[in-house]
Known about the structure:
Elements: H1 4-7, H2 18-32, H3 41-55, H4 57-65, H5 75-100, H6 104-144, H7 151-179
Helix pairs in contact: 2-3, 4-7, 5-6, 5-7, 6-7
Amino acid sequence: MTDPFKTLSLAKRPYLSEEEIGTAYRKLAGELHPDQAGGDANRFKELGEAAAILRDPARRLRALSGVEAGNITPPEAADLFLKVAQLLQETDSLVARHAATSNPLAKAVLAAPLKKLAATLGSLLGIVQGWHSSLDDRLSVMDASWPRHDPKEVAELADSFAYATRWESQLGERKLSLDCL
């Protein structure tokens, strides 16, 4: 893929607002849409891919640093890794048990563990959201001093965003599934 910043005609920086990305995308999408006169399906597809990369802080930072995803868990994520994995597994197991149970009494017996698990999920989700917020703060600081940067720090921040975003999504989905039971 070509440079997503260049594709959307945006400055190469760590922080871009959703509004900046959306405005640049809509302007070019109107010109390149295949249904428009002079539209170009391939460039339109590239435009969508570029916007997706720039909307994701981890992918945006990797595009800036030129470094692929690391294979080392960021220190902040290492502390949470086991907790998140165990809680996701426990949730999936309990939800499967609930779904397999047709007896109303058996479902009622599962109500208390489900409620407790939902509270635990909510607590851990709050921790991950707090971490994600601190990553946003670090991103703002990095953006303020851009282009002076440590490529290693950019790559580490990208990896941290990848973990925080994925966990926030996974925990949020599981919490919602428990809340709907």
